[in-house]
């Protein structure tokens, strides 16, 4: 998340976060949520800070997190016995891997597979071109393709932070990118995660997160 806005002078009340920065932070949080969780973490360790941070942003952005809270509570109840036993299957990374990594992949995070049924195709190439135009490069330890959900969401956060500093070109690119890419794959990702619950109930949480992404999208143009 972005650092909180600093006070103008000692004793001043903190300035309210702007809508643009709130959206940047929300995209950043959601990007992290679609990366593999730390090894050994339980669902509660992963979900509690995420839910808290999104709740802080919800009033500014008008987010409805009811479905997400319900999904986490439902999956937590389902996993209670597993986690109390302390076995390796309690690891939230195991659930993530079953949904997004283990063949046959139920919910691909490379959005070219969702949009055109191919890996490293047109979607990935177009996303990479947008990153170049936006002066954005993924972290060196990020080993996936340019169309990965997390990379796209982080790119939007990066552009919105630049826009907050007065970069009008960054704001325009963010709007175009969201409409062309994120708005196209977010509903498909939600549907894929919902289908994946048949094999791994934890996918219910990521389906709800995909729905939160859709709440951030601009209204369709007429």
Summed up, what is this model?
By secondary structure, the protein is an all-alpha fold.
Task: Describe it.
The chain is mostly helical. It has one domain (19-216): Orthogonal Bundle (TorD-like), CATH 1.10.3480.10. Helix content is 63%, strand content 0%. The protein is built from nine helices and no strands. Helix 1 (19-33) runs antiparallel to helix 7 (149-164), helix 2 runs antiparallel to helix 3 (66-85) and helix 3 packs antiparallel against helix 9 (203-216). The chain is globular and about 55 Å long. This is Chaperone protein TorD. Pfam families: Nitrate_red_del. Keywords: Chaperone.
Task: For this entry, give a set of tags.
222 residues, mainly alpha, TorD-like, 0% strand, globular, DMSO/NO3_reduct_chaperone, chaperone, TorD-like_sf, TorD/DmsD_chaperones, Chaperone protein TorD
- Average predicted local confidence, pLDDT: 89
**Radius of gyration, whole Å:** 18 Å
Beta-strand proportion:
under 5%
Number of DSSP-assigned strands:
0
Distance between the termini: 33 Å
Query: What is the domain tally?
Result: 1
* The first-level CATH class name: Mainly Alpha
- Number of helix segments? 9
Structural class: mainly alpha
Sketch the topology as an H/E string, one letter per element.
HHHHHHHHH
């Amino acid at each position: 998340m972005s650092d909180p806005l600093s006070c103008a002078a000692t004793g001043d009340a903190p300035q309210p976060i702007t809508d643009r920065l709130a959206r940047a932070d929300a995209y950043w949080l959601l990007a992290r949520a679609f990366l593999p969780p730390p090894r050994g973490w339980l669902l509660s360790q992963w979900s509690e800070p995420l839910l808290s941070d999104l709740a802080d942003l919800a009033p500014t952005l008008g987010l409805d997190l009811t479905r997400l809270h319900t999904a986490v509570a439902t999956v937590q109840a389902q996993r209670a016995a597993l986690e109390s036993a302390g076995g390796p299957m309690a690891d939230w990374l195991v659930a993530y891997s079953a949904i997004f990594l283990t063949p046959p992949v139920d919910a691909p995070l490379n959005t070219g597979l969702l949009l055109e049924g191919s890996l490293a195709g047109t979607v990935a190439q177009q996303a990479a071109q947008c990153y170049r135009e936006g002066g954005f490069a993924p972290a060196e330890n990020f080993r996936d393709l340019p169309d990965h959900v997390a990379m796209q969401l982080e790119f939007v956060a990066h552009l919105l932070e630049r826009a907050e500093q007065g970069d009008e070109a960054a704001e325009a690119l963010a709007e175009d990118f969201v409409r062309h890419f994120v708005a196209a794959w977010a509903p498909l990702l939600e549907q894929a995660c919902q289908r994946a619950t048949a094999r791994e109930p934890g996918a219910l949480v990521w389906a709800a997160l995909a729905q939160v992404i859709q709440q951030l999208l601009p209204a369709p143009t007429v």
